[in-house]
Design a protein that fits this description.
The chain has three helices and three strands; from the N terminus they run αββααβ. By secondary structure, the protein is of the alpha+beta class. The chain has a three-stranded antiparallel beta sheet with strand order 1-2-3, with helices on one face. α1 packs across α2.
Length: about 130
């Protein structure tokens, strides 16, 4: 997807290579939404610091029956799903809706907090200790 970090901790555009490979191989894409890592390793910083980071493993996105011409659509779908799980991206989307005079409501899959889903995985704070 790119492997780059933004200076402000925002979600950057995704590149298409990994999605094309998934389509060519006919394997699903497993989106993982990660947040909280910007504090642990700021862009340009040489050191990793303790932070509270979270990873949410999302439902796989199937590629069966899709050809490589669906690369951009697959990339955009996966990015949309990941963005919907990131607190900063949800707030940015809400601010955009407010600026356009649209209702400020959660996306249907996010209604009721986590949409009825609990996080599938989280990374504990430094030291590898679990609460």
């Amino acid at each position: 997807m790119g492997g780059e970090r933004s200076a402000k901790g925002t979600l950057l555009p995704f590149k298409s290579g990994a999605f094309r490979l998934a389509l060519e191989a006919g394997v699903p894409v497993l989106p993982v939404a990660v947040h909280g890592t910007a504090e642990g390793m700021p862009k340009g910083g040489p050191w990793v610091r303790p932070c509270r980071a979270f990873a949410r493993i999302l439902e796989p996105v199937e590629t069966a029956g899709r050809g490589v011409e669906a690369t951009v659509a697959l990339r955009d779908e996966v990015r949309r799903r990941i963005a919907a799980e990131l607190p900063a991206e949800r707030e940015r989307a809400a601010a955009d809706r407010r600026a356009k005079g649209q209702p400020d409501e959660a996306a249907p899959e996010r209604a009721g907090g986590s949409g009825g889903r609990e996080p599938k995985a989280s990374v504990p704070p430094s030291g590898g200790q679990h609460a």
